[in-house]
What we know:
Helices cover 18% and strands 17% of the residues. It is built from 8 helices and 17 strands. The protein has helices at residues 2-24, 90-110, 148-155, 183-187, 256-259, 267-272, 289-306, 322-329, and strands spanning 48-51, 54-58, 74-78, 81-84, 121-124, 130-135, 158-160, 167-169, 175-181, 213-221, 227-235, 243-249, 392-398, 428-432, 448-452, 460-461, 465-467. A hairpin with a 6-residue loop joins strand 7 and strand 8 (167-169). Helix 2 (90-110) crosses helix 3. The chain is globular and about 65 Å long. It starts with a helix and ends in a 40-residue tail after the last strand.
Amino acid sequence: MKKIFLAIIVAVIGCTMLTSCMKSMGGQGGEVTGVRGRSWNEPQPYGMVLVKRGSMEVGAQSQDSLWGDLLDAKGISVDAFWMDEKEVSNAMYRQFVHYVRDSIIRERLADPAYGGNEEYKIEEDKYGEPVTPHLKWSKPIPWRKPNEDEERAIESVYRIDPITGRKMLDAHQMNYRYEVFDYNSYAQRRYRLNPELRDLNTDHAVDYDAEVLISKDTAFIDDDGNIVRSTIVRPLSSEWDFLNTYIVNIYPDTTVWVNDFANAFTDQYARYYFSSPIYDDYPVVGVSWEQANAFCRWRTEYLVSSHGMRGIQIEPYRLPTEAEWEYAARAGNNDQTFSWKTDIPHTDKGCYNGNFKPGNGDYSRDGYIITSPVGAYPSNDFGLYDMSGNVAEWTSTAWTESGVHSASDINPDYHYNAAKEDPYRMKRKVIRGGSWKDAEHYVRGDVRSWEYQNEQRSFIGFRCVRTYLGNNKANVKSSGKSKASKQPKQKKERGGGGGGSRSVRRR
């Protein structure tokens, strides 16, 4: 009897262990059912609309002998992405400038040369263990009643105009440093750290002594406060070789209004366009492609740090590819050349659809002489404003005459990361959309143009995009207008807020 009872207990324990083992292996009756993660859709970013995945023919749909346009349409498909509803405004970019200003002040408040208040910089955790030094943004800057050392730190980022005696921000100091991991190069087989994985052809002998060279961008600030950039080429040794360092002076060139228009009275725009609250909601200009990329990087870091999301992977803000931009501007419609549906620039009632140059010397017929406030004209069918006119917009795409024909037909992009030593002609980037100073033809959604990546113009701005990570809402392109998310409630602050993009290496 005892033997029978013991056998029953052993059998029960065995079945329990087997069942437990099956559960731990995720088994369902011995069938492979997969290990599933939790379904997740990222929240809608503020001020952005979702451009759903789709396909269309980009490029000129017909030949235009008057403007020299050739038929060069190509069918492409793009995945879903978030896009700024409106162009980046002066107010938005000024927040970036204030962040850089405030970060410099906080660094100096923690510097022994300015009193050395350690509360402005965190160098160890609550357990006393060392951490990567970073600024403590919850510690306010003493704007109103600083002591002598604090006042020196605050005043160090300003200068006095020798002519007017007016105190102004020292634009030369407004440098933003950031790092970009070049994932595209890192993923290529020819750059694998293990020589056996660089060539999978078993007919080829593995060369363990082969020297693989990698180019890497670096930057530092010299003793005179000048940014020194260089591109070094060295043998591949570790993952750190794919981490590039950039330092960019991010203050807009406010003198573009004078330099772009000879023999014109534009001094007032140079003095007030970026600094005056009158122009808060106007698109930022005088920003280079390099500065626009720095803004995208900061915007990503600001989102991550503000929500305590360090260590969480999110898709970074970035500039749109040329294909993404055209798909969004034309609302995925092959028959649509402008961001609006018709081939005429105004409605039946005579109201203009965008801000451009309607006639010979006539800039005002559409309501504005120069730029207009972002969103002043009707949006397109995707809910995007000012895709035609107002300011031309930077894209991430490097300029080639062949355009999209030199790229894939799925998420096409030609991205050349020019080295400092490259010829200037290799530093051209695509701009799209035309501007307030352009004739009707140049604000078409299928017309291409370019500018040098370090150039700043009074007619070029930008908007950001983010790759969409979800799936449920991105299956079909929308035929109606999308809505941007509402602005979150924020406390009004005197200073700025708290602080990857992808890069493809030169070939």
